[in-house]
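Database export, one record per block. Field names are fixed; values are copied verbatim from the stored entry.
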Amino acid sequence: MVRTINKTPFDRFTLAHVVVGYLLKRGGWSAESTLIAAIAWEVVEPMLKENNPDAFPHPEKDSAENKVIDVIATMVGWTL
């Protein structure tokens, strides 16, 4: 079982979420599609980490606060 360790709202992957949002907009994604994808990722990510921990640099589960910031960061990137 993967433990919740990443309890901080911001982490080194926050910037990666901004970049993803920016790239999705450049790729023609709408704000709504980007938001749905960001939320879907945060829902699916713990299951992926649980089943494939070697695929992640840090397979610890994120806190709820971190998930919210990740979604917001994605949308900030989309607005750039």
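Remark 1: Residues 15-79 form one domain.
Remark 2: The first strand starts at residue 4 and ends at 6.
End of record.
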